[in-house]
Amino acid sequence: MSAVEAKLAELGLRLPEVVPPLAAYQPAVRSGVYVYTAGQLPMVDGKLPVTGKVGAEVTPEEAKELARTCALNALAAVKSVVGDLDRVARVVKVVGFVASASDFTGQPAVLNGASELLGAVLGDKGVHARSAVGVAVLPLDAPVEVELQVELTEA
After folding, report:
1. How many CB atoms lie within 10 A of CB 34?
2. What would the 3-class secondary structure string for 37-106 be?
3. pLDDT tens column, 105-145
4. How far apart are CA 79 and CA 148, in angstroms?
5. More exposed terminus of the chain, fewer Cβ within 10 Å: N or C?
6. What DSSP designation does 22 have?
7. Which residues pair with 19 in a beta bridge?
8. pTM of the predicted model, to two decimals?
9. How many C-beta atoms lie closer than 10 Å to residue 25's C-beta?
């Protein structure tokens, strides 16, 4: 078990199976020392636990937990192309999308779910730049979607 996966276990979490693509793309792609993930939805066992807009059908607190799930799914996608999460040198960038009610402006707080998870699991390697974007709708009516850019250590 890698140190990263041991930390996940210590936090009471496990790395999920990679979420299969919903269309014509790969869950993650490596280019040189970087891995770019596709946008990861908060899928749990192949299903979205909640759908709808944050600030309407979904509370900000629920959405923050969903962002955390997205980050776990993104880490699984990274592992699928590098084999060992201990190869992560740092998370460079997180981009998060929040399907928002027209008057909802708390996107950064929602995306803290992903950012806080990455920090808890990876420590200083999980500190990153981030964009939190409010959108009208996401695939499958998901409330949140998260993608990562990760730098790897030299092999």
Report:
1. 14
2. ECCECCCECCECCCCCCECCCECHHHHHHHHHHHHHHHHHHHHHHHCCHHHEEEEEEEEEEEEECCCCCC
3. 999 999 999 999 999 999 999 999 999 999 999 999 999 99
4. 12
5. C
6. S
7. none
8. 0.96
9. 10
